[in-house]
Amino acid sequence: MHIGMGLVCGNKIKDMVNAGFNFIIYLADWHSWINNKLEGKMENIKIAGEYFKECFMGLGLVKGVRYVWASELAKEIEYWEKVIRIAKKTSINRVWRALPIMGRAMDSQDIDAAAMFYPCMQAADIFHMNIDVACAGIDQRKVHMLARDVAEKMKWKKPICLHTPLLTGLSGPIEQLKGKYDEDPRVNAKIKSKMSKSIPSESIFVHDPPEVIKSKIEKAFCPPKQVEFNPVLEIVKYCIFPIVKTFHLIRSEKHGGEKEYESYEMLEKDYLNGLIHPLDLKVSVSQALIEILKGVRERFEANPAPLKAVLNLKITR
Amino acid sequence: MDLEAKIDLVKRNTEEIVTLNELRNLLETNPSPKAYWGFECSG
Question: Are A290 and A213 in contact (CB under 8 A)?
């Protein structure tokens, strides 16, 4: 699990729990199987799901949160009835255009027919669990719009949709993926350069040891006075600020001394004006992340089996 | 927590909410609404 999932999603889930929501973290094992993740083997997928649960619990997602497996829904005939009803109200073209939700380009040639179930199932998940607000990264908006349209046609409860940004991979705006993922050029560029766990040097994992976090951040793309596609600043904004009261900038006296920031906006302003050097920012971000991810490390120190099991799996994209 | 504080909390750091009005209605009428996030289990 990289920090895009652990902290961008994790922090938003905490916000929602604090706002009074009952939150379901849905472990989509069937969807992973359809999408050939972890060699398309269910036993591997279960191992990854158990590891996710441990990571989220290590990040403090315990109270107000319930973990549900897709295979629990898949046992019920009423679930499959919804899948079919959704498919009957949706054109093949529309389902095809939603394929980027699986991380597959819109111009892919080698998609098997099982993929056509995926968007219909993802919409059925929402209705079957009677969800009020469906949350996801912005790369999932197509299936959510599909679900809203079906809801209107079927007179089902229309889900409210909340979409979070995608963290840029550590090497910056480099296109890691080939093909086209969205009609909107901005969203397309974001998806193609997003932090991806299939490229370990591009991501910080929630279980990374402190020295690995330091070395990855040290090498990260962090152009001076630039906010757009700057993964280090994005980490400050989406991963660190939501859980700390102040951000501590570590800096030698010679270069201006240490400083406390109470908001991301103040820090961004100083960065844009060249008042914060990228190297000082990087050292401070590493330190803050190491602290935030402490709970995950401690959890796996006490019980290493789920992490060990997942590290033995072959990651397939 | 009052309604505006809840909305601000849910809204912060998001790319979009479809729709904000529906979210407001939900939080006005339902003290414990249900939300979900789905994850592919892939390591």
Answer: yes
Choose the closest CB to B15 out of A5, A138, A237. A138
Measured between alpha carbons, how far is residue A123 from residues A92, A132, A134, A273 in Å? 15, 13, 10, 45
Q: Given an 8 Å threshold on Cβ–Cβ distance, is B39 in contact with A19? A: no
Token duo for residue A101:
């939700």
CA distance A169 to A201: 9
Contact across the interface for B18 and A145, Cβ inside 8 Å:
yes
On the question of pLDDT at A317 being above 70, the answer is no
DSSP code string of A171-197: T-S---S-S---SSHHHHHHHHTB--T
Of residues A316 and A71, more confidence is placed in A71
Distance from CA of B29 to the nearest CA of A (A): 12
Looking at the partner chain, which of B26, B39, B43 has a beta carbon nearest the beta carbon of A313?
A: B43
Asked if A129's CB is within 8 angstroms of B15's CB, the reply is no
Nearest-Cα distance to chain B for A304, in Å, is: 15
Nearest residue on chain B to A24, alpha-carbon basis: B36
Shortest distance between the Cα of A277 and any Cα of chain B, in A, equals 25
Indicate if ipTM > 0.95: yes
pLDDT of residue A90: 97
pLDDT > 70 in chain A, percent? 99
Weakest-pLDDT range from A164-168, A186-190, A306-310: A186-190
Q: How many residues does chain A have?
A: 317
User: Residue B41 is nearest to which of A19, A48, A144, comparing CB atoms?
Assistant: A48
Overall average pLDDT of the A97-103 stretch: 86
Confidence of residue A178 (pLDDT cuts 50, 70, 90): confident
